[in-house]
Amino acid sequence: MRRNRRRRAAAVVEFAVVLPLLLTILFGIIEYGWVFMVRQTLQSAAREGCRIAVMPTVGPPYTEVIERVNQVMAPTGLTSYTISMTHATNSDPTETVEVRIPYEDVSLLGGFFGTHDYDL
Question: Where are the domains positioned within the chain?
Answer without folding.
Answer: 2-110
